């Protein structure tokens, strides 16, 4: 069951700079929303700052390119938007003492991990084990970038969407809830990282609350394509809590 309450109505966040490691769909989408919300972003990827000129030009003066280590150092909060298969390449020294947002999802066919397959750990606990000196918060993993850019609303709006988060450090959860508020979303605390499975793939909280029910008979690839293009559907905090409470733990990860 979710252990925490809702985070609503925040008007400020201690972070003014968001470091982003990874500029795929998630990293790029969060960067766009963050800049539009008035934050600075430092973008990075594994290919080097020179490959990010287009992203920086599109985002404007609030964005700059850097290496992953530089983005980690510069960010008041850091989004680790990399494939889970590369989590152990995150710059551990530069993330020491940082709050790290983990939007990674496990896909066993790409990167099998016995400890995840046996449900001994959640994927975020695996990341936290690697980043032992950081404070890992699971968030921004169950909503698509398109819907992040469609569903944001001002604090107090009756149709404001809520997003789940999980983590072991209360202060870090407050930081991330504050960031989500600035981005235009309420937050629902699902408890520690050990309970983050409640919003992972194969649970009622993953993707579908924000897009509705897909057509029947879709192949896995067609399902992913449909979710990425479907119009966004606002989902309030009460609904997020209710769906989390119905989750039953089964095989970990998104399985094609």
SSE topology:
Elements: E1 6-7, E2 17-21, H1 25-36, E3 40-44, H2 53-59, E4 63-65, H3 68-74, E5 77-80, E6 99-102, H4 114-117, H5 123-130, E7 135-138, H6 145-150, E8 162-167, H7 170-183, E9 186-189, H8 220-229, H9 237-246
Describe the model:
With 256 residues, the chain is an alpha/beta fold. The chain has a single domain, classed as 3-Layer(aba) Sandwich (Rossmann fold). Helix content is 30%, strand content 14%. A nine-stranded mixed β-sheet has the order 1-9-8-7-6-5-2-3-4, sandwiched between helices. Strand 3, helix 2 (53-59) and strand 4 form a beta-alpha-beta unit. The longest helix is centred in the last third of the chain and has 14 residues, at 170-183. It is globular, with a radius of gyration of 17 Å. Residues 1-5 and 8-12 have low confidence and may be disordered.
Might you state the CATH topology name?
Answer: Rossmann fold
How would a crystallographer describe the biggest sheet? Answer: 9 strands, mixed
Mean of residue pLDDT values:
92
CATH superfamily: NAD(P)-binding Rossmann-like Domain
How many independent structural domains?
1
At CATH level 2, the architecture is 3-Layer(aba) Sandwich
The level-1 CATH class: Alpha Beta
Please state roughly what percent of the residues sit in beta strands, choosing from under 5%, 5-15%, 15-25%, 25-35%, 35-45% or over 45%.
5-15%
User: Which structural class do you get from the secondary structure elements?
Assistant: alpha/beta
Q: Kindly report how far apart the N and C termini lie.
A: 27 Å
Backbone CA Rg: 17 Å
By DSSP (H or I, 4+ residues per run), the number of helices equals 9
**What's the SSE pattern?**
EEHEHEHEEHHEHEHEHH
Poorly predicted ranges (pLDDT <50, ≥5 residues)? 1-5, 8-12
Described by the principal axes of the CA atoms, the overall outline is globular
Number of strands: 9
Helical amount: 25-40%
